[in-house]
């Protein structure tokens, strides 16, 4: 690991810390640490404030440090060129990977992350209370039901939950907190089916489970940003990055597999169940909500 990345990772872990502690924790010499911090400060990525005596408190510059949240899914390979283009514009980008969408949306709302991809249903609900903005689409579909859709497990406030309500109105939906708990519940017989996304749908299929239903290609997770970010700037970079992704999907799926620590061939197969589309018609989403008897002010 190079010295700059080591120092950035330590600042990311601690939030802020004295420069003397940074030298000790990084194992990098005092002079080299000072050189790296001077460069990072010049580029606007960190700020240093004087403490008592000669020591300095080091922290990220919130205007240059972006935290992006995603769910562990095959859905987001397009974030790879997005990350690259943000970094080329001088941002330091951290990606946080979550087990479910409601936690992503909550952390955007609380300012724990700056933007994220999570179920549009949860983003709409949270946007009525908190200052988050839904600014773009990402992918459609990419999910289905394994098993008989009578007693169906689903993560809470997710697209799968909404789609199950739409397609199987008599089904009983049982809430779960993660894909692992869904798969465990199915294996133990606690539920008869799971409404689940890729790559877990393909994983279950490869183990001999029958996919009984594939959901229509409706927007699943959308991009929302916290209050205070430059919406137009972020959206412009995102849309340009999305076009870059669409012109060379295989390249970005490979680097995305590395980010997730997943098998490339699995993600390549799983990604084919998605329709990648950055355009979002929010009225279309409200119409689907009404069909499921979910009424929210627009």
TrEMBL record:
<dbReference type="Pfam" id="PF01047">
    <property type="entry name" value="MarR"/>
</dbReference>
<dbReference type="InterPro" id="IPR036390">
    <property type="entry name" value="WH_DNA-bd_sf"/>
</dbReference>
<feature type="domain" description="HTH marR-type">
    <location>
        <begin position="6"/>
        <end position="50"/>
    </location>
</feature>
<dbReference type="InterPro" id="IPR014466">
    <property type="entry name" value="Txn_rg_UCP012876"/>
</dbReference>
<dbReference type="InterPro" id="IPR000835">
    <property type="entry name" value="HTH_MarR-typ"/>
</dbReference>
<dbReference type="InterPro" id="IPR036388">
    <property type="entry name" value="WH-like_DNA-bd_sf"/>
</dbReference>
<dbReference type="GO" id="GO:0003700">
    <property type="term" value="F:DNA-binding transcription factor activity"/>
</dbReference>
<protein>
    <submittedName>
        <fullName>MarR family transcriptional regulator</fullName>
    </submittedName>
</protein>
